[in-house]
């Protein structure tokens, strides 16, 4: 699949500059910290950060006491995450083919990673999230709210990229999350009112 290869290559290219870009960002993001704190408090068992990038959120969750590992499509991101956080486990993998056993985790965090999965493959990724989660397990998705798809051709210091960013309407994602076997508990709007805003969706794997 071209989009998967393009996304992988793009994030391999920007891994180091992305890590710099997000370094310390959480200090200025109280709502993001609150979402991660809620995740850590609610998840009672192993958790996985899917699309973990350089592992900054994985490490933050671990610092809050979560038993968490990370998975990312980009080998360079995973190398960086392993170097930066040698005490944590990171693996290369795609959410469209998640290599975890059924009902093996109590929490899945997917922060700004499902944004790169095209519409037709979103049910595949959500199906994997549901399969690997225990009944009652928590799924938290961070995403861009908006309409349409943007092709990002450079980023994080001007490096070349070829990555599609799919903006989504809350109703569109909610419908697919429910169809995958989840109950939606809450959705937080971050910087609402902007042309492209952010949202964090909290859903529970149906029992
Ligand atoms: C915008 S970054 C987000 C990183 C981190 N979660 C954050 O919110 O800062 C997107 C990350 O998702 C990863 N990614 C994209 N598609 C993926 C897929 N199909 N499976 C797993 N990871 C993926 C990319 O390699 C990249 O590290």
From TrEMBL:
<dbReference type="GO" id="GO:0008168">
    <property type="term" value="F:methyltransferase activity"/>
</dbReference>
<dbReference type="InterPro" id="IPR041698">
    <property type="entry name" value="Methyltransf_25"/>
</dbReference>
<keyword id="KW-0489">Methyltransferase</keyword>
<dbReference type="GO" id="GO:0032259">
    <property type="term" value="P:methylation"/>
</dbReference>
<protein>
    <submittedName>
        <fullName>Methyltransferase domain-containing protein</fullName>
    </submittedName>
</protein>
<feature type="domain" description="Methyltransferase">
    <location>
        <begin position="48"/>
        <end position="137"/>
    </location>
</feature>
<dbReference type="InterPro" id="IPR029063">
    <property type="entry name" value="SAM-dependent_MTases_sf"/>
</dbReference>
<keyword id="KW-0808">Transferase</keyword>
<dbReference type="Pfam" id="PF13649">
    <property type="entry name" value="Methyltransf_25"/>
</dbReference>
């Amino acid at each position: 699949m071209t989009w998967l290869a393009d996304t992988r290559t793009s994030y391999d290219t920007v891994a180091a500059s992305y890590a710099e870009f997000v370094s310390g960002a959480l200090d200025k993001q109280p709502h993001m910290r609150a979402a991660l704190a809620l995740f850590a408090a609610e998840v009672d068992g192993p958790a996985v950060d899917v699309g973990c990038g350089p592992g900054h959120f994985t490490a933050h969750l671990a610092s809050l006491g979560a038993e968490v590992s990370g998975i990312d499509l980009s080998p360079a991101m995973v190398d960086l995450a392993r170097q930066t956080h040698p005490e944590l486990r990171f693996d290369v993998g795609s959410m469209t083919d998640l290599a975890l056993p059924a009902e093996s985790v109590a929490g899945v965090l997917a922060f700004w990673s499902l944004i790169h999965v095209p519409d037709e493959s979103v049910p595949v990724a959500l199906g994997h999230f549901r399969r690997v989660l225990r009944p009652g397990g928590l799924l938290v998705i961070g995403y861009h709210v908006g309409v349409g798809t943007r092709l990002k051709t450079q980023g994080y210091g001007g490096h070349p990229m070829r990555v599609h960013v799919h903006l989504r309407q809350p109703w569109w994602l909610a419908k697919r999350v429910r169809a995958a076997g989840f109950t939606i508990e809450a959705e937080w709007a971050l910087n609402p009112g902007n042309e492209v805003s952010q949202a964090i969706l909290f859903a529970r794997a149906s029992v």
